[in-house]
Amino acid sequence: MDIPDTDPVLAAARAQVLHDLESTGAADPGSVSALEDAVATRRWWTDQWPEGAAYVAGLVAQDVQDALLETRGRWPLCSACDALDPHSLYVHPDLGGPDPTWVCEVSGIAVAPLGELVAPRGPEVKG
Ligand SMILES: [Zn+2]
User: 47: CA distance to ligand 1 center in Å?
Assistant: First the structure.
């Protein structure tokens, strides 16, 4: 079997994003399917541009974020700042780069590195 060099990178990206889906309670068949689609798309992308491997985790996260926005709404929601309106975190740097980090879009707080989100704290989840 011919195993591309990008596989470890994609496996790591998949593991990071899956962790964050699970830790935020967003892992379900739909979101995992969106993750698999994103990984497949980025596998092709890194085959075309191997130097882009350092960017791939952040891009996979953004792909999943975009997919979930259409199906289940904003993900991941911020629980790190004092803003009351639900708002999402975004991946910084937003055009992809090494060491992607989840950043609050309201306060600018760097909440956690990609793959290290923890369960939201604060008020109990209703319903
Ligand atoms: Zn926030």
Answer: 35
27: phi > 0 → left, psi -120 to 50 → alpha, else beta; which? Answer: beta
> Is 126 domain-assigned?
no
Q: What DSSP designation does 124 have? A: P
* Helix, strand, or coil (residue 102): strand
> How confident is residue 98, by pLDDT bands cut at 50, 70 and 90?
confident
Rounded to whole angstroms, how far apart are CA atoms 53 and 59? 10
Please give the radius of gyration of the chain, using alpha carbons only, rounded to the nearest integer: 15
Give a yes or no: residue 13 inside a domain.
yes
How far apart are the CA of 82 and the centre of ligand 1, in A? 7
Structure tokens of 67? 């997919």
Residues with CB under 5 A from ligand 1 (ion): 78, 81, 104, 106-107
Domain assignment present for residue 19? The answer is yes
Six-digit token pair at 112?
């956690």
pTM of the model: 0.87
Determine the angle formed by the axes of helices 56-71 and 29-48, rounding to 10 degrees. 140
